[in-house]
Amino acid sequence: MQSYTSRHITYPSDILPGISGLAREVHNLTGARYLAGIWDGHPDTFIRSLLWRVSDGWIAGHKKPANAADNGSPTWSWASIQAEIAQNTLETFRISQPGVDPEFFLKEVKLASSNPFGQVRGGGKLGVVGYVHTYTGPETFATFRERRKAERIAKSIKDYCGEGSHIAINEDSYDVSVDHYNDAATIPADAGDEDLEVDLDIPNKSYNWSAGKHVLLFMCRWAGEPKPDFGVEQEFLVLRRVGSLRAVKGEKGRRDVFVRVGIAEARGPDLLDITVQEGWERKRMFLV
User: Fold this and answer.
1) What is the spatial distance between Cα 131 and Cα 101, in angstroms, rounded to a whole number?
2) CA angle 144-147-153, nearest 5°?
3) 87 near 52, Cβ under 8 Å?
4) Considering the entire predicted model, what is its pTM?
5) In sequence order, what E strands does the chain have?
């Protein structure tokens, strides 16, 4: 897919039809359902497919900016963007978190023809129940870094070093204990700066964050091994609210509707706590 999307396809309406034959072959081999370029097979495959990003090579190579394809594809499909698209194809494992991981209750696209592997016209819709947090732009993660900083650093020292261990700050070594970090006022200003690294992929580099209400949708935790001690990453979709739709049959009321703006990836020894106490809300909504 990365090679295919790097080829400057002349007509955006050809993006999905151009690989429809290959998509049909993959479906015949795997039985996975195809949704505008996204594979709905094993839950790990589906979530991984939704976490596509603009390739680093596209950015570093000073190629033309990524553009919306405006070809009828839903925003959660990579086919909605004209750019070289990459996905996480490394040997990674999803760490299951029942009650925290998102659950999908609706998956549909509106096809332009009877070919389920061809062009989409009129978008598509995903119904999801997941944890969301208000997002005001990249500075949101700076706020996460400071939140409960004393508690997180104390826990990190205790878990990885033991009480009374030495840690390096500004190339000097201090003999510290867990208790030393129980009060935020005692924490050196630069302590813990590297405990949360965040990569953002927002295809529209001039995106206006004041354009509407944004949220982070927690998607998963990945790791390089099934039971990791370190190297764990969290993945989020960055979404913008665009309105509401009637709930699905059998439910009452309306659900908020969001479009995909990009993704965020967080890594470090002390990741975000996806809890109500930390400002996260379990929400039922639609992605279009």
Assistant:
1) 8
2) 105
3) yes
4) 0.84
5) 33-35, 38-40, 53-54, 67-68, 81-82, 85-86, 93-94, 103-111, 120-135, 166-169, 172-175, 197-201, 214-223, 233-246, 254-267, 281-287
Domain boundaries, the chain: 2-138+196-287, 146-186
95-119 confidence digits (pLDDT tens): 889 999 999 999 999 999 999 999 9
In sign, the C-alpha dihedral spanning 239, 109, 37, 284 is positive
| Pairing of β 172-175 and β 254-267 | unpaired
Distance in angstroms (rounded) separating the CA atoms of residues 273 and 144: 10
Q: Are 236 and 219 in contact (CB under 8 A)?
A: yes
- The CA distance from 128 to 255, in Å, is 10
Separation of alpha carbons 260 and 54, rounded Å: 13
Q: Supply 184's token pair.
A: 């935020």
CB neighbourhood size of 84 (10 A): 22
Work out whether the CA dihedral 100, 106, 111, 117 comes out positive or negative.
positive
Amino acid code (one letter) for 229? D
Which residues 6+ apart lie within 8 Å of 222 measured at CB? Answer: 88, 92, 93, 94, 95, 232, 233, 234, 235
For 160-211, how does the pLDDT look when each residue is reduced to its tens digit (9 = 90+)?
Answer: 555 555 444 444 444 444 445 555 555 555 555 456 788 999 998 888 888 8
236 and 217 Cβ atoms separated by less than 8 Å: yes
Encoded amino acid at 217, one letter: L
Which of 130-134, 180-184, 200-204, 259-263 shows the lowest per-residue confidence on average (mean pLDDT)? 180-184
Q: Give the span between the Cα atoms of 89 and 280, in whole angstroms.
A: 29
